[in-house]
């Protein structure tokens, strides 16, 4: 346990020195600010930019629009930035050979593996909910008529989807020694999910629901069978990715 704690402290210091936390903090803060602001002011900006001879009817923005922007920005900006920033979580260690010295000093490989995953998980948790809190505050400021019914179900689903991608990223980093292979693995996984969603039966079990049905869940305010199935499959995949990654990391050459 002492080695686990020491390695986490080492990872925190390293990620602070190489500006990973700083970059992610900026990105997630921007997402938190941009989502309600764009929902509130974008219709006005569009109306001012449109030619006077063109008539376009724009409905008044609501708190739903703010959360729609949050889900979109989180998927297209924040999650992408997070995966990019942490794609080299093991590859740089392989290149520098630092893990060889740590392992020869007696630190178990599984401790290294799960400590790195823990740092990513805690980082995702802190930055995600920080962004959520910023969006929540500004949404209530600009749209005081808003409600939190169904909010935590829709946001929590997206949070779990992020954990799924983190587990896959960690697992693929154990299999491959390059920076780009984990990125391609995560991208390929998402591409497969989109393709499988073309089949209705598979779509009802697809983890992709956690990142694509957020606005619907916000309006519905309760889960349905398909979402429960998606949550179950996602939990199994997270466990599967972590286990196979740890098995591979125990056997992988570190130099």
Task: Note down, in words, how this protein is organized.
The chain has 255 residues and is mainly alpha-helical. 78% of the residues lie in helices and 0% in strands. The chain is built from 12 helices and no strands. It has helices at 2-17, 20-49, 63-85, 91-96, 98-104, 109-142, 151-175, 180-196, 200-203, 209-212, 214-220, 225-251. Helix 7 crosses helix 8 (180-196). 33% of the residues are buried.
Give structural attributes.
mainly alpha; globular; 12 helices; 255 residues
List the topology elements.
Layout: H1 2-17, H2 20-49, H3 63-85, H4 91-96, H5 98-104, H6 109-142, H7 151-175, H8 180-196, H9 200-203, H10 209-212, H11 214-220, H12 225-251
Mean pLDDT, to the nearest integer, reads: 87
Largest sheet: none
| CA-atom Rg in angstroms | 21 Å
What would you call the shape?
globular
How many strand units?
A: 0
Percent range for helical residues?
Answer: over 70%
Structural class: mainly alpha
Order of helices and strands: HHHHHHHHHHHH
Strand content: under 5%
Number of helices: 12
As residue ranges, the low-confidence spans are: none
> Ends: how far apart?
26 Å
Kindly summarize this structure in a few lines.
This protein is mostly helical.
């Amino acid at each position: 346990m002492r080695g686990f704690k020491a390695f986490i402290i080492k990872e925190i210091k390293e990620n602070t020195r190489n500006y990973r936390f700083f970059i992610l903090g900026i990105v997630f803060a921007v997402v938190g600010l941009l989502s309600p602001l764009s929902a509130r002011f974008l219709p006005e900006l569009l109306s001012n930019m449109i030619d006077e001879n063109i008539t376009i009817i724009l409905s008044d923005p609501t708190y739903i629009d703010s959360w729609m922007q949050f889900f979109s920005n989180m998927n297209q900006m924040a999650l992408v930035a997070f995966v990019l920033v942490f794609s080299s979580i093991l590859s740089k260690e392989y290149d520098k050979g630092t893990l060889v010295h740590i392992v020869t000093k007696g630190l178990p490989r599984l401790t290294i593996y799960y400590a790195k995953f823990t740092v990513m998980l805690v980082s995702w948790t802190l930055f995600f909910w920080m962004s959520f809190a910023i969006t929540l505050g500004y949404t209530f400021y600009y749209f005081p008529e808003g409600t939190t019914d169904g909010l935590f179900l829709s946001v929590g689903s997206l949070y779990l989807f992020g954990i799924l991608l983190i587990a896959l990223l960690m697992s693929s980093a154990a299999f491959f020694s390059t920076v780009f292979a984990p990125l391609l693995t995560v991208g390929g996984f998402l591409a497969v999910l989109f393709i499988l969603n073309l089949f209705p039966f598979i779509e009802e079990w697809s983890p992709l629901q956690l990142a694509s049905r957020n606005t619907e869940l916000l309006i519905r305010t309760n889960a349905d069978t398909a979402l429960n199935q998606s949550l179950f499959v996602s939990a199994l995949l997270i466990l599967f990715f972590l286990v196979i990654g740890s098995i591979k990391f125990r056997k992988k050459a570190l130099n």
